[in-house]
């Protein structure tokens, strides 16, 4: 291996993550050279605003296109995010023979097939470990370590903002708005938190995980999505009384019909489940496979340093390929499995009903469940008089049948209000 060779690196973007990548390339130059087989020289950084106090001014340019077209630049790091101009710039980089390392989950979830095809055509690498769960190595195990196995199910906490909010609601009894405000104050949530709290960020990551796990093309539009904005302090308290906890989970699994169910929504899981102990802004991905069994990958899922760690790992990998030849794993979509509609997905509901406290109410409720062939596992009444409430846990059923049951319950005279409906996962019975 020729340790004297130099590979010139161009970077698109220089925000929190990009600044940390630039710092670490400089600070860890000796180690990166030894590990990759080449000196990695960051020679140009594309930015919108040249005012970057922690970056040498001679590295900066506002002409991002010039970086991907520069014949003297070998490798590209993309950390600008979003769809455009990132998509166009990455495609241009491929056309000019440059491998790309990206952290752009939104782009991969929407245009992954196009990008993989372009990389293949040009004979270059596309690496993207940082796109899901920050520093946690989850994509490479799915692409490489588990490629000889059959993944059956993935459940993951892949958004730190929502996990922080739900943790605070669980531990202190805070309302959603108060927990969100605290997350914003501490820098765990953006001023506009929509992408996080409405589940868009997690849905993009779920699409990437599902595609890798099941060797099929899955886009963000295939993912059923619900956010956490409707979760109340009462929901969290009731969950705690049942030894459950609320998490926003990305779930991808194979159905009995051989299709992929992929969804993001608030989920109740047992406090004994490994994911239940994942607190604050940490991420974790729980994988179940045919031969390896159950595995959990845990760590920091966001932030400058953790994300930069994943990017530099990918940078070393593509640099090795550039020096010694060969390419990393290509897109694996041979299975070509369809995506199951949410209605056919088997799950269970926990339903809270505010009801009239009079004889016959429970029978009417039970009859409604029976009408849709939904079996009740447990039912508990709390309160009396005007404060009477039924808490119903179902057995597994098709989501469409469960949703139809809830719709019919809302029409019963005895049901004053459907206080909440939450899906339950990770329970054997």
Q: Can you give keywords for this protein?
A:
429 residues; Rossmann fold; alpha/beta; Alpha-Beta Plaits; single chain; 3 domains; 14 helices; Dihydrodipicolinate Reductase, domain 2; six-stranded parallel sheet; eleven-stranded mixed sheet
Write structural notes for this entry:
It is a single chain. This protein is an alpha/beta fold and 429 residues long. It has 3 domains: 6-134 and 304-324, NAD(P)-binding Rossmann-like Domain (Rossmann fold, 3-Layer(aba) Sandwich), CATH 3.40.50; 150-299, Dihydrodipicolinate Reductase, domain 2, CATH 3.30.360; 345-424, 2-Layer Sandwich (Alpha-Beta Plaits). Helices cover 36% and strands 25% of the residues. It contains 14 helices and 17 strands. It has helices spanning 16-27, 29-36, 64-69, 86-95, 105-122, 139-145, 160-172, 176-185, 194-197, 200-214, 233-241, 304-324, 361-371, 399-409; strands at residues 6-12, 39-46, 60-61, 75-78, 99-102, 126-127, 151-157, 224-225, 244-254, 260-270, 282-289, 293-300, 346-355, 376-382, 389-394, 397-398, 415-424. The strands form 2 sheets. Strands 7, 8, 9, 10, 11, 12, 13, 14, 15, 16 and 17 form an 11-stranded mixed beta sheet that branches. A 6-stranded parallel beta sheet has the order 3-2-1-4-5-6, sandwiched between helices. Strand 9 and strand 10 form a beta hairpin. Helix 4 packs parallel to helix 5 (105-122). It is elongated and about 85 Å long. 46% of the residues are buried. The mean pLDDT is 95.
């Amino acid at each position: 291996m020729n340790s004297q060779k130099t590979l010139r690196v161009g970077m698109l973007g220089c925000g929190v993550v990009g600044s940390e990548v630039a710092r670490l390339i400089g600070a860890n130059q000796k180690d990166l050279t030894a590990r990759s087989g080449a000196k990695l020289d960051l020679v140009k950084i594309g930015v919108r605003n040249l005012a970057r106090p922690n970056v040498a001014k001679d590295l900066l340019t506002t002409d991002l296109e010039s970086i991907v077209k520069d014949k003297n630049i070998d490798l590209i790091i993309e950390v600008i995010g979003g769809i455009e101009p990132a998509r166009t710039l990455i495609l241009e980089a491929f056309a000019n023979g440059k491998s790309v390392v990206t952290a752009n989950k939104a782009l991969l979830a929407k245009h992954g097939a196009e990008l993989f095809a372009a990389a293949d055509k040009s004979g270059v690498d596309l690496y993207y470990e940082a796109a899901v769960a920050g520093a946690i190595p989850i994509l490479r195990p799915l692409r490489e370590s588990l490629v000889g196995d059959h993944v059956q199910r993935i459940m993951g906490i892949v958004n730190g903002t929502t996990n922080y909010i739900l943790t605070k609601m669980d531990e202190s009894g805070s309302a959603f708005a108060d927990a969100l405000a605290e997350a914003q104050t501490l820098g765990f949530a953006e001023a506009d938190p929509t992408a996080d709290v409405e589940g868009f960020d997690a849905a993009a990551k779920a699409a990437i995980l599902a595609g890798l796990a099941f060797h099929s093309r899955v886009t963000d539009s295939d993912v059923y999505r619900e956010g956490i904005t409707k979760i109340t302090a009462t929901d969290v308290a009731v969950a705690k009384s049942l030894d459950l906890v609320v998490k926003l989970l990305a779930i991808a699994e194979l159905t009995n019909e051989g299709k992929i169910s992929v969804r993001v929504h608030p989920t109740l899981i047992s406090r004994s489940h490994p994911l239940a102990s994942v607190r604050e802004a940490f991420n974790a991905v729980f994988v179940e496979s045919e031969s390896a069994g159950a595995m959990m990958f845990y760590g920091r899922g966001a932030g400058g340093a953790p994300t930069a760690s994943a990017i530099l790992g990918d940078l070393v990998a593509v640099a090795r390929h550039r020096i010694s030849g060969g390419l990393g794993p290509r897109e694996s979509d041979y299975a070509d499995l369809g995506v199951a509609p949410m209605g056919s997905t088997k799950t269970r509901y926990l339903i809270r009903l505010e009801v009239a406290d009079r004889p016959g109410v429970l029978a009417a409720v039970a009859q409604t469940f029976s009408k849709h062939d939904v079996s009740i596992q447990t039912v508990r009444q709390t309160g009396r008089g005007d404060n009477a409430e039924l808490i119903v846990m179902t057995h597994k059923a098709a989501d469409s049948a469960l949703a139809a049951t809830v719709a019919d319950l809302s029409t019963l005279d005895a049901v004053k209000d459907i206080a909440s409906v939450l899906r339950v996962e990770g329970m054997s019975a």
